[in-house]
Fold:
Amino acid sequence: MIKQAIIPLAGLGTRLLPLTSVFAKELLPINGKPGIEYILDECIDAGIKEVVFIISKKKIMIKNYFYNDKFYKQIIKKKKDPRILNEYKKIKKYKKMIKFVYQNKPNGTGDAVLKTKKYIKDNFFLMLLPDDLIINQNCSKSMINIHNRFNSSVMASMNVNKKTVSRWGVYKLGKRINNKNYLIKDVIEKPSIKKAPSNKAVIGRYILPKKIFSKLSKQRPGKGGEIHITDAIQSLINDNNKFIAHNFSGKYLDCGSMKGYIKSNLEISKL
Structure:
């Protein structure tokens, strides 16, 4: 069973400037609720018991959000508002399952994953990218079910416009397992349109093996001088480790760009 998850949160959030010049994008409200809480709720519903947040010192407000007990106790004592009390109970529930590690230089998602090595105990763990919200389905729960059935790594997949493939990690698919799941032959980070093997993109949900840490510790920087998680995944695939691409059935929302953030608010307000 998958019981641990990691969430990289140290990114600069440049697509949401000027908001992110003073505010962590993961705390921006989406229909009145911080975006990170949707990710945590997905984890809890999927059976996750421990979550490791990777933050930077510049985003310490994320940690402060979950460790503001003194403020809540003072307000609850003064106001005696049941809504505030319920919010505090929710925050305390989240806090019990969260650990923090730091990535103070933006060296890529692979580097962020490597920072969590000391906390990962089991052979597989879940990673969620907070810019990617998936509604109308718990994608993490579906992927954990696939992992339990096939004892393999699993990555979320979605068809994207061929003209946008350079924004994504892109799959070259192998054998079809069933209607929603395929073996992965290759993963290419942000290919050109000409070099893209398909229009099936990596979306921010991964079940990864613990052995990926040994790959990341030896990995050289790739495009943009960053350590890319897709390069480590490709190395594991080359070593005959099984990775499955899961075509999820929920609706994808990109809340990491200004246009996507506004759309996410509108879509979630309809639920």
In short: Residues 184 and 200 are 11 Å apart (CA to CA).
